[in-house]
Fold this protein.
Amino acid sequence: MVDVSIIGAGVAGLCMATEIAARGGTVHLYDREAAIGEHACSWWAGGMLAPFCEGESAEEPVVRLGQESIDWWDTHAGGVERNGSLVLAMGRDQSELKRFARRTSNFDHVSGDFIAEKEPDLEGRFNAGLFFGSEAHLTPRVALSALSEKLATKGIHVQTSSAPEQTTIDCRGLSAKDALTDLRGVKGEMLVLKCPDITLSRPVRLLHPRIPLYIVPRGDGVFMLGATMIEATERSRITARSMLELLSAAYALHPAFGEAEILEIGVDARPAFPDNLPRIRKRGDVIYANGLYRHGFLLAPALARMTADYLFEGKRPEVMDED
Ligand SMILES: Cc1cc2nc3c(=O)[nH]c(=O)nc-3n(C[C@H](O)[C@H](O)[C@H](O)COP(=O)(O)OP(=O)(O)OC[C@H]3O[C@@H](n4cnc5c(N)ncnc54)[C@H](O)[C@@H]3O)c2cc1C
């Protein structure tokens, strides 16, 4: 009989609760806050389900395990847009496109005509790019709400009281640094823009030697623009430099972004271990599931699946370590 208390209802905790409940386990879910919001790093994510693009800088397990995420989100939350990802570079940065292609797989080299066909608003702006047709994206806040609502239909509500004694799965993100001393923060800054003059159907990554950035369409002329990667645990305050770089990237993609309204400025620190890979760490009766780094929505389903395999079948997760 699997009966667990999960502490933390960000993307790690909600995926964990969903997976264990779906397999018939009893789940008690706790957070400091009753509903997902600005307190969770997951609130600020772009929601790209892009395992092959991430291979540019991530290790092999991220590419392999991340491929599980698209079907998982479709099954448990819905709202997955399977339109692929487009990777572009300005004329002077074409070497970045070649470098990206060398380090990734599962894409097509595409022409300016292809780009214009897929994204008419970018017509005439880019001569070449990479298209990762099997990738997808979702809107994180919608997906997390969908998981919460489904859990609620099973009688699993986020409780704000302190957790009882059953086996605990600790999904506190960066707050678990009090127990996991090798966890660090990687600061990310993002903007939400409203620009009704532009329509995009898929995430677009704009390569640059120093500041590779992406734009994720949220529909109705709203875009998430992200994200910086800074070695810092600070979870607030955007710098002028970051703001300039983010907005310059949007403007380079299309000058109409110069007229955009800034709806939100988001800042948080991603929980990461030294190799930027996630871990399932067992200490006594506590299982820590953490270190999702910049791959929260991409890897939380695999982390949940591996933890459930361990609890229900005794199968040791490939990312399990003891300390
Ligand atoms: C700007 C930005 C862009 C990003 N873009 C992407 C992206 O496109 N794709 C992607 O996959 N990932 C992305 N990420 C990364 C992703 O957001 C993180 O990997 C993910 O949110 C980590 O999730 P988590 O559940 O571990 O932590 P969190 O989301 O921080 O959740 C932890 C939860 O634990 C709770 N908690 C803490 N302490 C306690 C306690 N003592 N008791 C009870 N509850 C507690 C908190 O309230 C919180 O709800 C991005 C991150 C940032 C900052």
Observations:
- Residues 296-313 form the longest helix (18 residues).
- The pocket of flavin-adenine dinucleotide is lined by residues 7-13, 30-33, 39-42, 44-48, 171-173, 175, 188, 190, 226-227, 266, 268, 270-271, 290, 292-298 (CB under 6 Å).
- The chain is about 30% helix and 25% strand.
